[in-house]
Protein backbone atom coordinates (compact mmCIF):
# COMPACT_ATOMS: atom_id res chain seq x y z
CA UNK A 1 0.00 0.00 0.00
CA UNK A 2 1.24 3.45 -0.93
CA UNK A 3 -0.08 6.13 1.36
CA UNK A 4 0.30 9.87 1.24
CA UNK A 5 0.42 11.42 4.70
CA UNK A 6 -0.31 15.15 4.41
CA UNK A 7 0.99 17.85 6.73
CA UNK A 8 3.41 15.78 8.78
CA UNK A 9 5.24 19.07 9.37
CA UNK A 10 3.68 22.52 9.61
CA UNK A 11 4.74 25.26 7.16
CA UNK A 12 6.75 26.85 10.01
CA UNK A 13 8.58 23.57 10.68
CA UNK A 14 9.28 23.14 6.95
CA UNK A 15 10.71 26.67 6.80
CA UNK A 16 12.93 26.06 9.83
CA UNK A 17 14.09 22.72 8.40
CA UNK A 18 14.94 24.29 5.05
CA UNK A 19 17.12 26.89 6.75
CA UNK A 20 18.97 24.20 8.69
CA UNK A 21 19.31 21.98 5.61
CA UNK A 22 20.59 24.93 3.59
CA UNK A 23 23.45 25.47 6.05
CA UNK A 24 24.28 21.79 6.65
CA UNK A 25 27.23 19.79 5.40
CA UNK A 26 26.40 17.53 2.42
CA UNK A 27 28.45 14.50 1.36
CA UNK A 28 28.24 11.85 -1.38
CA UNK A 29 25.12 9.75 -0.75
CA UNK A 30 26.91 6.47 -1.46
CA UNK A 31 28.04 6.42 2.20
CA UNK A 32 24.81 4.72 3.28
CA UNK A 33 24.21 2.60 0.17
CA UNK A 34 24.72 -1.14 0.02
CA UNK A 35 27.15 -2.61 -2.54
CA UNK A 36 24.54 -3.05 -5.27
CA UNK A 37 22.62 0.18 -4.74
CA UNK A 38 25.81 2.26 -4.58
CA UNK A 39 26.12 1.76 -8.35
CA UNK A 40 22.61 3.15 -8.90
CA UNK A 41 22.84 5.99 -6.40
CA UNK A 42 23.89 9.52 -7.29
CA UNK A 43 22.88 12.15 -4.74
CA UNK A 44 24.11 14.06 -1.71
CA UNK A 45 23.32 13.36 1.95
CA UNK A 46 23.85 14.88 5.35
CA UNK A 47 26.17 12.52 7.26
CA UNK A 48 24.39 10.19 9.70
CA UNK A 49 24.62 11.52 13.23
CA UNK A 50 25.33 15.09 12.05
CA UNK A 51 23.71 17.56 14.52
CA UNK A 52 21.44 18.96 11.78
CA UNK A 53 20.20 15.45 10.93
CA UNK A 54 19.64 14.66 14.60
CA UNK A 55 17.75 17.89 15.29
CA UNK A 56 15.50 17.59 12.25
CA UNK A 57 15.14 13.84 12.73
CA UNK A 58 13.75 14.41 16.21
CA UNK A 59 11.33 17.00 14.82
CA UNK A 60 10.04 14.46 12.28
CA UNK A 61 9.84 11.49 14.66
CA UNK A 62 7.98 13.50 17.29
CA UNK A 63 5.56 14.87 14.67
CA UNK A 64 4.88 11.32 13.44
CA UNK A 65 4.24 10.18 17.01
CA UNK A 66 1.24 12.54 17.07
CA UNK A 67 0.00 11.83 13.55
CA UNK A 68 -3.11 9.59 13.72
CA UNK A 69 -2.93 8.59 10.04
CA UNK A 70 0.72 7.52 10.32
CA UNK A 71 0.12 5.61 13.57
CA UNK A 72 -2.91 3.80 12.14
CA UNK A 73 -1.22 2.91 8.83
CA UNK A 74 2.30 2.04 10.04
CA UNK A 75 1.62 0.61 13.52
CA UNK A 76 5.24 1.54 14.22
CA UNK A 77 7.51 -0.33 16.58
CA UNK A 78 10.78 1.46 15.74
CA UNK A 79 11.62 4.38 13.47
CA UNK A 80 15.10 4.62 11.96
CA UNK A 81 16.66 8.05 12.65
CA UNK A 82 15.70 10.10 9.56
CA UNK A 83 18.34 10.77 6.89
CA UNK A 84 18.36 13.64 4.40
CA UNK A 85 19.19 13.72 0.71
CA UNK A 86 19.43 16.23 -2.09
CA UNK A 87 19.36 15.77 -5.87
CA UNK A 88 20.50 18.48 -8.27
CA UNK A 89 22.12 18.75 -11.72
CA UNK A 90 20.72 15.56 -13.25
CA UNK A 91 21.29 13.38 -10.19
CA UNK A 92 19.09 10.29 -9.78
CA UNK A 93 18.82 6.97 -7.99
CA UNK A 94 18.26 3.97 -10.25
CA UNK A 95 15.96 1.05 -9.48
CA UNK A 96 16.86 -0.67 -6.21
CA UNK A 97 15.41 -2.28 -3.14
CA UNK A 98 16.23 -1.03 0.35
CA UNK A 99 18.24 -3.26 2.70
CA UNK A 100 16.00 -5.47 4.86
CA UNK A 101 17.92 -4.92 8.08
CA UNK A 102 19.63 -1.69 9.09
CA UNK A 103 21.98 -1.05 11.95
CA UNK A 104 21.33 2.22 13.75
CA UNK A 105 24.83 3.73 13.57
CA UNK A 106 26.58 4.06 16.90
CA UNK A 107 24.06 1.83 18.70
CA UNK A 108 23.58 -1.93 19.11
CA UNK A 109 20.09 -1.57 17.61
CA UNK A 110 18.96 -3.00 14.31
CA UNK A 111 15.64 -2.47 12.64
CA UNK A 112 13.81 -4.55 10.08
CA UNK A 113 12.69 -2.19 7.33
CA UNK A 114 9.00 -2.98 6.80
CA UNK A 115 8.04 0.46 5.52
CA UNK A 116 9.97 3.16 3.71
CA UNK A 117 9.13 6.84 4.12
CA UNK A 118 10.04 9.90 2.07
CA UNK A 119 9.19 13.35 3.43
CA UNK A 120 9.44 16.25 0.96
CA UNK A 121 10.95 19.68 1.74
CA UNK A 122 11.05 21.36 -1.68
CA UNK A 123 7.87 22.42 -3.48
CA UNK A 124 7.12 20.44 -6.67
CA UNK A 125 7.56 23.56 -8.83
CA UNK A 126 11.06 24.21 -7.47
CA UNK A 127 12.51 21.32 -9.45
CA UNK A 128 12.00 19.34 -12.64
CA UNK A 129 11.97 15.51 -12.47
CA UNK A 130 12.82 13.91 -9.14
CA UNK A 131 9.65 11.81 -8.93
CA UNK A 132 9.87 8.90 -6.52
CA UNK A 133 8.70 5.93 -8.58
CA UNK A 134 7.49 2.91 -6.66
CA UNK A 135 6.74 -0.32 -8.49
CA UNK A 136 3.78 -2.14 -7.02
CA UNK A 137 1.26 -4.65 -8.30
CA UNK A 138 -0.77 -1.85 -9.92
CA UNK A 139 2.24 -0.65 -11.91
CA UNK A 140 4.68 2.16 -11.24
CA UNK A 141 3.43 5.07 -9.16
CA UNK A 142 5.34 8.34 -9.69
CA UNK A 143 5.08 10.55 -6.63
CA UNK A 144 6.05 14.14 -5.92
CA UNK A 145 4.48 15.76 -2.85
CA UNK A 146 4.21 19.27 -1.41
CA UNK A 147 6.62 20.28 1.38
CA UNK A 148 5.82 18.71 4.75
CA UNK A 149 3.95 15.78 3.14
CA UNK A 150 5.25 12.22 3.29
CA UNK A 151 4.92 9.06 1.21
CA UNK A 152 4.77 5.77 3.11
CA UNK A 153 5.33 2.62 1.01
CA UNK A 154 6.29 -1.01 1.52
CA UNK A 155 10.06 -1.37 1.85
CA UNK A 156 9.75 -4.56 -0.17
CA UNK A 157 9.07 -2.53 -3.36
CA UNK A 158 11.55 -1.78 -6.10
CA UNK A 159 11.81 1.98 -6.50
CA UNK A 160 13.86 4.74 -8.11
CA UNK A 161 14.16 8.52 -8.22
CA UNK A 162 14.02 10.13 -11.67
CA UNK A 163 16.82 12.55 -12.64
CA UNK A 164 16.41 16.09 -11.30
CA UNK A 165 17.02 18.21 -14.39
CA UNK A 166 16.32 21.64 -12.87
CA UNK A 167 16.46 23.02 -9.32
CA UNK A 168 16.91 20.84 -6.26
CA UNK A 169 14.91 18.07 -4.60
CA UNK A 170 15.46 17.84 -0.84
CA UNK A 171 13.84 15.08 1.18
CA UNK A 172 14.12 13.10 4.36
CA UNK A 173 14.07 9.33 4.01
CA UNK A 174 13.90 6.61 6.64
CA UNK A 175 12.39 3.27 7.54
CA UNK A 176 9.90 1.90 10.00
CA UNK A 177 9.78 -1.47 11.68
CA UNK A 178 6.10 -2.16 12.18
CA UNK A 179 4.50 -4.22 14.93
CA UNK A 180 2.82 -5.94 11.96
CA UNK A 181 5.43 -7.45 9.65
CA UNK A 182 3.05 -8.52 6.89
CA UNK A 183 1.95 -5.77 4.51
CA UNK A 184 -1.42 -7.47 3.86
CA UNK A 185 -2.20 -7.81 7.58
CA UNK A 186 -1.17 -4.22 8.18
CA UNK A 187 -3.38 -2.94 5.33
CA UNK A 188 -6.32 -4.92 6.67
CA UNK A 189 -5.91 -3.42 10.16
CA UNK A 190 -5.64 0.05 8.64
CA UNK A 191 -8.87 -0.45 6.65
CA UNK A 192 -10.66 -1.78 9.71
CA UNK A 193 -9.46 1.10 11.90
CA UNK A 194 -10.52 3.63 9.25
CA UNK A 195 -14.00 2.07 9.04
CA UNK A 196 -14.35 2.01 12.84
CA UNK A 197 -13.37 5.70 13.09
CA UNK A 198 -15.97 6.58 10.45
CA UNK A 199 -18.69 4.46 12.06
CA UNK A 200 -17.95 5.89 15.52
CA UNK A 201 -18.12 9.41 14.08
CA UNK A 202 -21.40 8.90 12.22
CA UNK A 203 -23.16 6.70 14.81
CA UNK A 204 -21.44 7.23 18.18
CA UNK A 205 -23.96 5.07 20.05
CA UNK A 206 -23.95 2.11 17.67
CA UNK A 207 -23.00 -1.07 19.61
CA UNK A 208 -21.23 -2.52 16.55
CA UNK A 209 -18.54 0.14 16.92
CA UNK A 210 -17.46 -1.43 20.22
CA UNK A 211 -17.70 -4.94 18.83
CA UNK A 212 -15.59 -4.04 15.78
CA UNK A 213 -13.05 -2.31 18.01
CA UNK A 214 -12.81 -5.61 19.87
CA UNK A 215 -12.15 -7.42 16.58
CA UNK A 216 -9.46 -4.86 15.71
CA UNK A 217 -7.64 -5.36 19.00
CA UNK A 218 -7.95 -9.12 18.87
CA UNK A 219 -6.39 -9.21 15.40
CA UNK A 220 -3.65 -6.87 16.60
CA UNK A 221 -3.03 -9.21 19.54
CA UNK A 222 -2.75 -12.18 17.19
CA UNK A 223 -0.36 -10.54 14.74
CA UNK A 224 1.71 -7.99 16.66
CA UNK A 225 5.39 -8.65 17.34
CA UNK A 226 6.99 -6.41 19.95
NI1 LIG B 1 15.58 3.35 -1.57
The percentage of residues in β strands lies in 25-35%
Cα-atom Rg, whole angstroms?
18 Å
Largest sheet properties:
9 strands, antiparallel
State the separation between the terminal residues, measured CA to CA: 22 Å
Helix content: 25-40%
**Count of distinct structural domains:** 2
CATH-derived architecture of the largest domain: Sandwich
Kindly state the mean pLDDT as a whole number?
95
What is the tally of beta strands? 16
What is the name of the CATH class of the largest domain? Mainly Beta
Low-confidence stretches: none
Structure overview:
- This protein is of the alpha+beta class and 226 residues long.
- The protein has 2 domains: 3-178, Sandwich (Jelly Rolls), CATH 2.60.120; 183-223, DNA Excision Repair, Uvrb, Chain A (Irregular).
- 34% of the residues lie in helices and 32% in strands.
- The chain contains 6 helices and 16 strands.
- The protein has helices at residues 11-23, 35-40, 51-64, 68-74, 183-202, 207-223, and strands at 3-5, 27-28, 41-42, 44-45, 76-79, 83-88, 92-96, 101-103, 110-112, 115-120, 127-129, 132-136, 139-143, 150-154, 159-161, 164-178.
- Strands 1, 2, 4, 5, 6, 10, 11, 14 and 16 form a 9-stranded antiparallel beta sheet that branches. A 5-stranded antiparallel beta sheet has the order 3-7-15-12-13.
- It is globular.
- The protein starts with a strand and ends with a helix.
- The site of nickel (II) ion has 3 residues, from loops.
Amino acid sequence: MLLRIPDVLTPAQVAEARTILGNAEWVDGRVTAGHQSSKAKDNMQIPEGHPAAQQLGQMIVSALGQNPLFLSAALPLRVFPPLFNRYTGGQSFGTHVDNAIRQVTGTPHRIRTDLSATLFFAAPDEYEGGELCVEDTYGTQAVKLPPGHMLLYPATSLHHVRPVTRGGRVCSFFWIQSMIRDDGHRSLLFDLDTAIQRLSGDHPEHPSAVQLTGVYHNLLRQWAEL
